[in-house]
Automatic annotation (TrEMBL):
Keyword Nucleotide-binding belongs to the record: yes
Species name: Gracilibacillus boraciitolerans JCM 21714
Domain ABC transporter: 284-616
UniProt name for this protein: UvrABC system protein A
Sorted UniProt keywords: ATP-binding, Cytoplasm, DNA damage, DNA excision, DNA repair, DNA-binding, Excision nuclease, Metal-binding, Nucleotide-binding, Repeat, Zinc, Zinc-finger
Family named by the database record: Belongs to the ABC transporter superfamily. UvrA family.
Localization (cell): Cytoplasm
Length: 632
């Protein structure tokens, strides 16, 4: 179609787009308008057809496909060609000229909602009003003060009031709902909170715990699903489920006050709370060797034109209170810049002047908590590549050779060996129209994904469907004599996912599990020591014992010579790092500066650092625990 348009307007297709005349570029981008273009094409039967069409233009085509599709994949593809910009008519305030002409203390409503919670609170406290205006506004101002105070108490003082809901993290959205409930001052309500401490610095976590205790004191019942040590110790009653994960869990291991749970030897949680088990401070830390990645003039969001040096070849923790600028610095600037230069990614990095030291790296890997796949066909076995090796094993069996089955026969993604009734999904989607879609096991293959002939081929008494149903732990024992498979499965075990099934659909994995599958897939690759791994809050959803395993994996990456960068609030993860870059001192406009850098011990001595203040007693406590352990 583009060729037809270029022929119609005599546009040379060998000229780079940037060198086209504006008139020519406009025709390609915005279309032919009411002018028809002669279009010659080949139909499905190989016949040449001629027709006249209105060419909609590349930009209109992208906009239409983005607007009309129901596919997340297509939307993501189209978003690569889009940027968000403020509306030139209202400057991003969303309101018309008449609404913005109404002002209080010389500020219109758009300017006030662009303030952070803290700034807005100060604005309303310091309102210059006449006596008559005070009488009119008294109830409104009091209500505003209360609501802003509730947001402040749950650690959201750095958020701007006009912040889009879609840009909030799960933890931030949950705490906004929590602030709403506090404001209602209801009693006799049962509140269920799932990990409210996600994304919270220890200082903000203390505020959150106080807020939860106030809700309890009003006469409410709170059930909190949580891994945070301080939250557990502040609870009136603990119910510990385990003893392990997956098939090794599902029992009530201990229940009672925190002190009572600590005495239960069977409780892993109790052992960590009592200090019987703990994550030790590393005996030695990796030292910087003089190579650095330098971010010069970082000025994105609330970052204040800062320069940051990140050591190469060691484990660095990026810390700071919520909203201090950690994600803007690492995800918004560093990752996008490196991805663009090392992998030709199309992302546009945040505001900065320059990044130095890129020659020390060959690739950047962002190990986030996004799903490893959006369909049931994606699973830990396919993502880590171990399924390729397993299919090789089945293709080499005598039964497969006799039948002439190749490796592809044991794939559920292509025709041949898969069940065609469900196309290898193992489940059938039933559209309920006005209700959510319902998924049921395929009646033909009974959820096994393969046809009967494929399932007849067995290795050590199990067919391919049986193998996919094994847990990682069981599969490791089953394939112990095949080094290539054993090595890959061992890395999944190392990240604490022994309970997950090989063929478990990606859609059923939590964010933390998906992140650890990604880590495992990186671990079994041979490293040249020139990779940068970025992990944003990897402890989300992890028990203290799982964090201990995660740290062992991070140390393995660093021992290979690679660079690991972790954005984290968890003090166990921070104290185990080789180097800390602490941002702050506060969130929002009060942050965006480098407060402290150095080893955990050095940062712990910086009085201006909130992270250092909470880190110091943890380091001192762990040294005493280590001394007591050595003494015993």
């Amino acid at each position: 179609m583009l060729k037809s348009v270029c022929e119609h307007y005599n546009i040379d297709m060998d000229i780079p787009v940037r060198n086209l005349a504006k008139k020519e570029l406009d025709k390609l981008l915005f279309g032919s308008g009411k002018e028809k273009i002669h279009f010659r094409y080949e139909n499905d039967y190989g016949m040449i057809r001629d027709t006249d069409i209105f060419f909609e233009g590349v930009l209109h085509n992208i906009a239409r496909r983005y607007r009309e599709t129901s596919s997340d994949f297509i939307r993501e593809q189209m978003e690569k060609y889009m940027l968000n910009k403020d509306c030139p008519a209202c400057n991003g305030y969303r309101l018309n000229e008449e609404a913005l002409s109404v002002k209080v203390n010389d500020l219109h409503i758009g300017q006030v909602t662009a303030m952070s919670v803290t700034e807005a609170n100060n604005f309303f406290v310091n309102l210059a009003l006449t006596e008559k205006e005070k009488q009119i506004a008294a109830m409104i101002v009091r209500e505003l003060d209360d609501r802003l105070m509730f947001l402040n108490n749950v650690g959201l003082d750095y958020l701007t009031l006009s912040r889009g809901a879609g840009s909030l993290s799960g933890g931030e959205a949950q705490r906004i709902r929590l602030a709403t409930q506090i404001g209602s001052a209801l009693t006799g309500v049962l509140y269920v909170l799932d990990e409210p401490s996600i994304g919270l610095h220890q200082r903000d976590n203390d505020r959150l715990i106080q807020t939860l205790q106030r809700m309890r004191d009003l006469g409410n019942t709170l059930i909190v699903v949580e891994h945070d040590e301080d939250t557990m110790l502040a609870a009136d009653y603990l119910i510990d489920i385990g003893p392990g994960a997956g098939e090794h869990g599902g029992e009530i291991v201990a229940q009672g006050t925190p002190a009572q749970v600590m005495k239960k030897k069977k409780s892993l949680t109790g052992q960590y709370l009592s200090g019987e088990k703990f994550i030790p401070v590393p005996a030695t830390r990796h030292q910087p060797d003089g190579r650095y990645i330098e971010i010069i003039g970082a000025d994105e969001n609330n970052l204040k034109n800062v320069d940051v040096k990140i050591p190469i070849g060691i484990y660095t923790a990026i810390t700071g209170v919520s909203g201090s600028g950690k994600s803007s610095l690492i995800n918004g600037i560093l990752h996008k810049s490196l991805a663009a230069k090392l992998h030709r990614a199309k992302q546009r990095p945040g505001k900065h002047k320059e990044i130095k030291g890129i020659e020390h790296l060959e690739k950047v890997i962002d190990i986030d908590q996004s799903p490893i796949g959006r369909t049931p066909r994606s699973n830990p076995a396919t993502y880590t590549g171990v399924f390729d090796d397993i299919r090789d094993v089945f293709a080499q069996t005598n039964e497969a050779k006799v039948r002439g089955y190749k490796k592809g026969r044991f794939s559920f993604n292509v025709k041949g060996g898969r069940c065609e009734a469900c196309r290898g999904d193992g489940i059938i989607k039933i559209e309920m129209h006005f209700l959510p879609d319902v998924y049921v096991p395929c009646e033909v293959c009974d959820g096994k994904r393969y046809n009967r002939e494929t399932l007849d081929v067995k290795y050590k008494g199990k067919n391919i469907a049986d193998v996919l149903n094994l847990t990682i732990e069981e599969a490791l024992s089953f394939f112990e004599n095949i080094p290539k498979i054993k090595r890959k499965l061992a890395t999944i075990m190392d990240v604490g996912l022994g309970y997950v099934r090989l063929g478990q659909p990606a859609t059923t994995l939590s964010g933390g599990e998906a992140q650890r599958v990604k880590l495992a897939s990186e671990l079994h690759r041979r490293s040249d020591g020139k990779s940068l791994y970025i992990l944003d809050e990897p402890t989300t959803g992890l028990h203290i014992d799982d964090i201990s395993r995660l740290l062992a994996v991070i140390q393995r990456l660093v021992d290979n010579g690679d660079t690991v960068l972790v954005i984290e609030h968890n003090l166990d993860v921070i104290k185990a790092s080789d180097y800390i870059i602490d941002l702050g001192p506060e969130g929002g406009d009060g942050g965006g500066m480098v407060v402290a850098t150095g080893t955990p011990e050095e940062v712990a001595e910086v009085k201006e650092s909130h992270t250092g203040r909470y880190l110091k007693p943890i380091l001192e406590r762990d040294i005493k625990r280590m001394e007591a352990k050595i003494g015993n």
